Amino acid sequence: VTGPSLDQARRPPLRQLLAGRKVICCVGSGGVGKTTTSAALALRLAVEGQRVLVLTIDPARRLANALGLSALGNRETPISLHPLEPEGVHAKGTLHAMVLDLKLAWDDLIHREARTPEHARQVLANRLYQTLSTVLAGSLEYMATERVAELSKSGRYDVIVLDTPPTTNALDFLEAPDKLLDVLDNDAMRVLLGPLLKAGRFGLRFFALPSSIVLGTLAKFTGASFLEDVAGFLVAFEGLYDGFKRRAAEVKRLLASPEAAFVLVTSPSPLTIEEALFFHRTLRESRIGTAAVVVNRVQRDPRRFGGPEQQAALAEALQQARLSDGPGTPAPGEPPLDDGSAPLSQRLARTLEEQAALADLDRREIERLAHALSGVPLYTVPRLRKDVHDLAGLWQMEQAAEAPE
Amino acid sequence: VSAAAPATSAPQAHALLGKRLVVFTGKGGTGKSTLSAALALAAASQGMKVLVCEVTARERVSELFGSEPAGTELRQLRPHLWAVHVRPREAMHEYGVMKLRSETIYNLVFERKVVRYFLKAAPSLAEITMLGKVCWHAAKDVDYRGQPTWDLVILDAPATGHGLTLLTVPEVFLGLVTEGPLAADMTWMQALLRDPARTSVCVTALPEEMPVNEAIELRAALQQHRLPVGPVFLNSAFATRFTRAERSAVAMAGPLLSAAGEAADAHEARAELTFRYRAALREAVGEALVEVPHQFDRHFGAAALERIGKAIAGSL
Question: Which chain B residue is nearest to residue A311, measuring alpha carbons?
């Protein structure tokens, strides 16, 4: 039985592939170990001697978990790499980590971009702004890219590893800056809301219907006060557009440049493989190459050792080894067994069959992925015996990704 | 019952099959769609008429049943079991036409580029109409006799953050707007979503550190928003099958039993994780825990869903 049908020995080490990049975006669907992979990559680059920041958008403390911390703040937090010394690893660089607090990041941005403190206060006080900054679709993704560009420019780091939000659509992430600008910087919208804005600088000539009728119909749904809020919001945002636009363009340029690398993270489950392929296509449509794909939690195939699999043959092997082939009796303090009354050989045969099924499923999916992504280096990380929630665990995970099958 | 004994049956108090609306949310990849489908199958097999609503970008439930995507029209997947894919634009259209009682006016107003921009900017109008459609099926969809069309509506909701955003959209909206028809609709939707007699929001988890932490936090957040929480579903559970003595004996037995020993070790590693996270969940949520055994199918489909349905039937 061989590993995935790709030449793992010939692929370059992941760190070599990512050398010289300023931004590494880990993309993929939720629940595939993207945060852990981001942290492991960041750790590797820090050990190699770079000044690294790993940034997550996740409010659910996953990065803190993975780094073995109980919580991480909205500020750049230095991570001590001393816990790796017992592993024989002496880091040459530094590692920082931070969680992006969406609300605070928005407020910071408004303060930076506003013309005057009074203007900032006006925006921050708008009721719509208060919900916008937490719920507007794409704002999460926008803030992430915006923050990366800013931190990258700061010069404090050689490389920033971004754990992207678990969007189901890669486009959300790539197009977030455009989408947000579309919404905020839209003359058409100001035309629509003209009567409410009392600005009237565009007149009503774009409409077949008077905009008051359009507005009236909308008001039937939302209530007039809501529309007034939207208008007030747009007025308050006036003057912020240009800053937004400039920064969004910078972010886009950075992400599409060779200084950025996209690492596709997935697990071998069919649904997430499907999503990984979708991500890859979307990236390609945006003319962005997938630098590497990392498949986490790959089941090891127990059959790689050979040996008997059928119950009768296992029973014989147990007999040869002078082992009892009886029911399992838990020692005091051990949990009760599932199906413990069955002979050991039967339980072993069933487990082999199940584990082999898991390995077959994973192999089938990885082959499908490797085939569709031919040319993209693929790294598999075996399912680890223990959860990763400290630096040593992260390091082992990173080592496993580098090891050939 | 010790804290770590397998959760074979949760208290009947949750009585998921007695609700109008059951919602599944949780970390991505923890089995929201699978459990939505399995619960639907379990309910349908008791003769209940069930509708599964999916709101995420990609349909999964119909795929699990081996059917073509259901699309935005109601589609029957099994006897008594229907599915629908709720998408923002279609939901908005349906809602708009219903309110205006005119397709023409809707198209004139809502299908304009300008207005579509507006709808994008106005916070959460997409979520409002999507959730509105789901709630309507659960609370207002009646046949000619005035009887509810559906015995149970199941919402396969988005993952944690987006799921919470969706479920709290009436609260957010009502904080902004209190007048107008939309506000009136938000009011009855909120009443349905917060009514423990009619609604239950179930969180899914896997026996791993991060999904379990996320499940515990999500459940607390749901409660904070006064949403009635159902049990946590611990998916993909492994049961202890070997004693420590058996495993070390097999490991020492030499190369002939290497594969079997490796398989047993891999199995027990996952059983240990199940054991640990079951205990962590028990500590956080008490008895409100339903365990779903891992399925080893090489082709995951209706047969696996039926097995899951049977495994959780005692807890429904």
Answer: B260
